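Observation: inputs received (chain + acetyl coenzyme *A).
Thought: call the complex predictor directly.
Action: predict_structure
Action Input:
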Amino acid sequence: MSFSILGTGSALPSRVVTNEDLSLLVDTSDEWIKTRTGITERRVCTEESITELAVQAAQKALEDSGCSADELDLIICATMSADYTTPSMACVLQMQLGASCPAFDINAACTGFLYALDVAAGYFARTADQKILVVAAEAMSRLVDWQDRGTCVLFGDGAGAAVLGKGNDLLAIQTGAKGNISSLYAENGWGNSPFHKQAEGDVASGCSSYLHMDGQEVFRFAVTSMVQTVEQVLDEAGLAKEDIAWLIPHQANIRILDSAISRLKLPKEKCLTNIAVRGNTSAACVAILLDEASRGGKLKKNDLLALTAFGGGLTTGACILRWSR
Ligand code: ACO
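Observation:
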């Protein structure tokens, strides 16, 4: 017993930040960003909190599924940029939605939505849970250094959600990690502990809490891992590449997607993307793309979807889902 997707939702900040806008902040250009990443614009939080976006995405998913908040048995949020360290985003969401179920956050960076689906599948298998809400929400604008052109041009903010019901549409899922700090990290500070011995370069003494990334290293990891994980879940489900109706991948760089699709020998038209207008919203990417594809009428009943993501950790994840709505 796994699950079926009963409804999806997403929410974005209203402020559009174009490449031109960024060229006023750092030494970059629309031409560089478009050709190196495929991104033209992204949404960035101004007055909205990331919790508000998560609530909106969750409410839309509940409405789409025809379920009410009091039917939920569990809420899982995937985020690394929540408004609070504690309470978790999931607990705040539980309160604001008026639900009464257990709730917790997970952090698997950009792979968070896939990890959350995997955790939900475990709950469905070992408990009597009937309905689980999974939300992926990120305010990457709070993590990036807006003076670093190597990272600030890549990311956006947003939230995506799915209501899952007990069912049989998850045909295969895999998550993985290859522990690594140097390729992609954002460090926490020590607050004002009088006991902590500060090393040079520590967060408290500078601005190293921002996201740091070795772009080329992540690029290589991304292409290899996307190809491997999609092949593994297809294998596990006993399916061939031709059976996939839509590839719904993490949106980090259009060149990563082109490379992965070409190695997977999939037609380009089968790969859904919204990176041009959303940028990389970390864990929220796959959830937002899934909702936009559903609401845009792209997904047909019984389509087989391959979801795949990679991210800080370094983490990876992929799954095959039947779209039975
Ligand atoms: N505008 C103009 N020039 C820039 C910019 C910019 N925004 N950013 C970097 N450059 C410059 C560099 O300084 C460098 O200049 P130099 O040659 O004078 O030193 C030159 O452009 C080339 O830089 P590279 O890093 O080699 O550029 P590359 O083609 O590798 O593209 C990029 C960089 C877009 C970051 C790419 O490596 C990438 O997408 N990597 C994967 C990133 C990723 O997936 N991140 C998310 C993963 S997980 C998560 O989502 C949290």
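Thought: report the result.
Final Answer: The longest strand covers residues 157-167. Residues 28, 32-33, 36-37, 109-110, 149-150, 153-154, 184, 213, 215-216, 218-219, 222, 252-253, 280, 282, 311-312 surround acetyl coenzyme *A (CB under 6 Å).
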